[in-house]
Amino acid sequence: AVSLSPEIAWIITVAAYRVVDKAEKTVEEEGEREAFYELWGGVINDALLYVSLSQEQIPRILELVDAGMASPVAARRKLAARVTGSLAQTFPPTQVSALLLSRALLLADDKHVQVRGTVGESLAFIGARLPVTVTENTLWPRFVEFLEDEDVRVRATALRTVSHILMAKKETEKSERLFKDLFLPVLLHWANYARQWAQEDLRVVDDDTYLLLEVIAEVFGNFVHSVSLFSRLGFRKQVMKAFVAMALCNGPLIRRNCAYNMPGMTQTLGSKYGNELSNVVEQLSRDADDEVRSILAAGMHHTVANLVNAGKIEKLLNAVANLLQDDNGTVRLCILEHFAETLRALVKEGDPTAMRRLTPVLEHVRFLSQGDWHIQEQFAKQLGDVVNIIPASLLRDKVLPLLLELTETGVYPVRLAAVHSIIRCFRYFRDADERGEAVERFWGRLKNGTHIDRLSLLEGGRFGLQCFSTTLFQKYFSNDMLLMAKDPISNVRLKLALILPELATICEQSPEFMRAYHSLAKDRDVDVRYAIQMHNRKAGKIMQAAREFDRQDRLKSAEEEKLYNQKKRDGLGGLTQAAENVKVKMDNLRATQGGLGSGLGALKRTGSRSSNTTRADSEASSVPEPPFFEDGDNGKGLARSSSLKEAIAGIASNLVTGRKKSKGKGEINTEGIANGEE
Q: pTM for this structure?
């Protein structure tokens, strides 16, 4: 959509009206005239939405509306009815009541059905801006007439208009008279109508009846919820029978609208008719129409949450299983989009049996999603969001093997999402022995796998920095990551070199870190050495953010103590002291000349350098620093992990640019860096 200034929008409106005035005399054919007014009416209405009418402009636009209302041409009167709806969205409420309501009611008496239908649509916007008393006393009698109009199109429009006004009044002025006294009889009338005709074979009913059924199913959820705000008795049984009849009819468009309204209907009627609605949900999950199933799947997390305590849990589980195993990829993607919320709703009372029933379903999804990486990525992310509610036995036996397979076989986005979820799984093994076994089994599988697996290991380790405290990260992950400095594949070594500044915050004093640093500094690949040269700058920036790191580390340590409650077995009893030691260490580094940020001088002061290290440093420093590293940080620093990731992503981008300028020995597949491949 094009955004217009109020001045330009007003010029377009006036010009379009001049065109319309001339066309009334020159366009004679009825069909051409209808198409002409439809086209220019759209221009006028779209432009009016951007106009801020002044006190001088309001009388002028109303003169144009009055001229259209007085025209003998029905298409021109239809345009006037359409314009009143647009003006209602720009006028203040007082002017809507004083200037537009009377004109709209006059047009509502027009003999031409299209004029009445159009003003019925405009009354939706007018009624939403009027005080509720005006709606009850002035508009409602006209709505009743519209709902009994001889033309089905006017009746269908009136149903949608009433729904729009009720939706607006629920947010502003709830009136018992409007919602209960005036509207409840209307709801019951159309519920009986829908129940009667939905039980028929809709393949042979007339088009007018099918249209009304489609519109009733569309607005039914809002209708029922509006009445339920003021009445809990005397209507639920009738509307429930009507809804079930529409949801199970043989009209696909009607069933689609019922699937769309399912979350609202379960919220309103679930406490009394949870079992019946659970049956309907299961049947719609097996519907022959793909759109019905995808619409149902998109709102399944709300539906399950509304029925989990009042409905049949087996029916809900079957419905979730049906949608997860659906042959249509769109349906599976819709249910997976909020899968974590669905699982939380199923086990929110702490009962893991529902999760165990879903275990075969989770395995089946893995095979159905082969080749569709969007579904695989979404599935891995959603699993990672609910690992805290999955029992440890299921994490070990079902979830982790599934995620590991996605890590080993998926494309890069899938591998990244899966390895992040694997790290989350490790965190929620509350028993230290079980956690250690899981890390050894699944983390070790990546460590001993292909170079793609080892790249995933490094990505997972980087994510582990955000999830685990310093103590547990060093216990489970850091050493395996630093060993990648000797990896035979240059892409793996380059990935480690890019991550090394982050690792420096917690283990730069360890011998393993020093060995990895010196090994990468004299690496045979020029890009790895360039990344290590950048390490000094990046590490210095990170060290400047050490205080924030210390605070976050203490928070993670406290969370782990609370989560595991096993200080001795995990060695967590000294976490607070360890955090304090880290803080002192960082303060000492900052007291020196920039720590690692000053280059290799900080490493010399540690007293742990050997002659081989000195030689490696001289080799690394002899490589000229390419020009694309000169303004790598723009002096902004890296106070947060997100900023660090962006900076490192920029390094990788610069490496790609630099390789185009300097090709030679040690050249790597730079496209593989982004995709995680050699």
A: 0.72
